[in-house]
Amino acid sequence: MNPLTRRRALVPAVALLAGALLTSCSSDTPPDSPAGASQAAESDKGGDKPSKFFEQAEYERQLKLGKETPQGPAAKPWEQMLEPEMTDTAQYEKKGSGGTHLCFSNAGVFNPWRQVGLKNMKAEVKLHKEISDFTVLDAQGKDDKQISDIQELAGNKDCDALIVSPNTTATLTPAVKEACGKLPVIVFDRGVETDCAVTFVNPIGGYGYGAVAADFLVDKVKPKGKILALRISPGVDVLETRWSAAKLAFDKSELDVVDAKFTDGDPAKTKSIVSDAISRHGSIDGVWMDSGATAVAAVEAFEDAGVDVPPITGEDQQDFLQAWKDKDLTAIAPTYPTFQWRTPVIAALRILDGKQVPKEWKLPQPTVTQANLDEYLQEGMPPLHYAMCGCQDMPGFPKDWGGKK
Amino acid sequence: MSSQTAEKAQASTAAPYKRVVRSLGTGAPVYALLVILLVALASTDPGFYEPDRFLAFVKRAAPLVILAAGQYLVIVCGEFDLSVGAIVTAGVVAAAEVYGSFPDAPWPLITAGLLLAGAATGLVSGLITTRLKVPSFITTLGMMLILEGAVFFWTGGSPHGQLAEGFRQMGRGTAMGWLPWAVLACLVAGLVAVLLMRSDFGRTLIATGDSERAAALAGVRVHRARVIAFVLSGAAAALAAVLVGGFSGVSAQAGRGYEFEAITAVVLGGVVLGGGRGSVVAAMAGAFSLQALFTLLNLQGVSGALESTVQGVIVIAAVGLGAADWSRLRRRRIHSSGGRPS
């Protein structure tokens, strides 16, 4: 076990090693490169190269959609649609009697957002008596498993319609294409690179989310204020679009983004990053976040440093809304609403009835503000619940969502 | 401070600087590295050594230091414990779940419960490793997967409760208004580890790692020593869970990656993988070095993605430097390895 040849390392050698490590860690590549393995997340250096995830036309479209009034019942945003282009579905009308069997290939339930979403979907299914069976296959975040899940469900004679929430965009495209030839397919949340699905359900999107949060800070923070941007991880399209829209807004403003850091969604890491930023820059005047999972940790970092919490952007997670109210924060919470999990079920039933649905079903993306905070903050819900679930009036609420009444 | 017996007879004739180097044992490089990093931090950020700031740094390092001390006990007797990260996660989530059901539970009870559960987990790993002869690498890897799966199954990935303020004080609050409780916990754990390694138990643990057969022939109950090491490692991980949960609140990934950070810290401290040599103080210094390095990278504005890269380089470099043959650069010295004639 114990190599007798082992010798003690020389102190100078270690000094050299440490020196080498320290000098090798200061590159200037922009933070937008998705590799994430050899970059300095120093956004005020050389960050002018547009991200490869940025599409000007889509950006402009989303900002425009954010100002539109959606069609449909205002009290049921999950049934609303923005600028719909309807498509005929008469060919998919279900013949014969008997209940409807809906099948769902889920990318996974690997985060609280997806867990709340799946609960919404299951509750929606319960609302419709005509659905006799609902089969869910969970891909556990693995592309290969989801490909075989989709093949299995598409080849299953019992499935009347297939709902897909793709794990990744490109890899799942062939499997979805194949399924489209066999039964009506409804894609939601992330997209795929084919328009063979009868409808693609998704909210306004990442540009809209990022811009709402950035515009709030531009409005609330004094010019020349120092902004800290906290991102989860590089290379994820839905998150990259949020950041690129925010970056555009900040570039146009007089605010100074002093740091853009990746937190991996880890609260301890977030706290460390924020306290380091406070000490490094003397003060932070605003915090922009691409998601709310670690917003409370960021707030606590300011408290622990003994300074006031500056204007901060979060998300509709219960713990953040609670902290917002309790600590009287200056905050905003753009959402990527979990109520979108209800819509595919509604869409599937309309398709099987032969009723028209939008080719792309664009859902509204409400924002939690100081004005409507009390409307969304519900006492007794678990800390990782998402308030924009559209589930408040569903049977089984709040118990089935982990809440207490 | 070194766990090795200083070779007094030789040392008295050696030059003073050699005596210093020798008393540091295999940990010498890590102290040098730590000093370099602390100097680099001071030059990067002049305010780093203000009492508040420095104590905040120690507070942040505390969980890793405690984990490294626990991991050291296991590694020095020739084993591995890969389950500590999962114990941290499970501890934080379990506490949140208990508070979800009993919001008024007294925090000392929860903390004691976590420590006992951590020790019990270590006991299971230790017994499986020693009695069933399953290599500890496999045992604790399995334990890690079991715990991670159990946590996910139990919570559906999103814990139900909030950690109570009282419970969070240990990781977040301060005693007497200036000294973080986490720093105190870290000091106490470090002191216990040092005293433990200076006791007979510590010596038998090193002897076990050095040569199991020789130790057994000399009357050491090697199985018992190893099981105790696992139990202590599990309890240390549970204490780290209390600190991590207190510091950052509920998270279903609270302990992710901690097992490798702890092993990196121990290796950085010059502790030989496979056991038999190294000091617990050096292992804890390794943890401080790692945290100092992360802080420095952060202050330099280096992306977090590089942290793991740097960690990998460090592990390989530390073991490589330790194993290299420096004899051509200086006169060969004969090591005493824990009193065993070599």
TrEMBL record, chain A:
The lineage of its organism: Bacteria, Bacillati, Actinomycetota, Actinomycetes, Kitasatosporales. Its main location: other. This is Substrate-binding domain-containing protein. Keywords: Signal. Belongs to the bacterial solute-binding protein 2 family. It is found in: Cell envelope. InterPro entries: Peripla_BP_I (IPR028082), SBP_2_dom (IPR025997), TAT_signal (IPR006311). Residues 1-27 form the signal peptide. Gene3D superfamilies: 3.40.50.2300. It comes from the Bacteria. It comes from Streptomyces durmitorensis. PROSITE patterns: PROKAR_LIPOPROTEIN, TAT. Residues 105-356 form the Periplasmic binding protein domain. Residues 42-51 have a biased composition (Basic and acidic residues). Pfam families: Peripla_BP_4 (PF13407). Residues 26-51 are annotated as: Disordered.
From TrEMBL, chain B:
The keyword Transmembrane helix applies. It is found in: Cell membrane. It is a multi-pass membrane protein. Keywords: Cell inner membrane, Cell membrane, Membrane, Transmembrane, Transmembrane helix, Transport. Coiled coil: none annotated. It holds the Pfam family BPD_transp_2. InterPro entries: ABC_transp_permease (IPR001851). The chain crosses the membrane at residues 20-42, 54-75, 82-102, 108-129, 136-155, 175-196, 227-250, 309-327. The keyword Metal-binding does not apply. PANTHER family: ABC TRANSPORTER PERMEASE PROTEIN YPHD-RELATED-RELATED, AUTOINDUCER 2 IMPORT SYSTEM PERMEASE PROTEIN LSRD. This is Autoinducer 2 import system permease protein LsrD. It comes from Streptomyces durmitorensis.
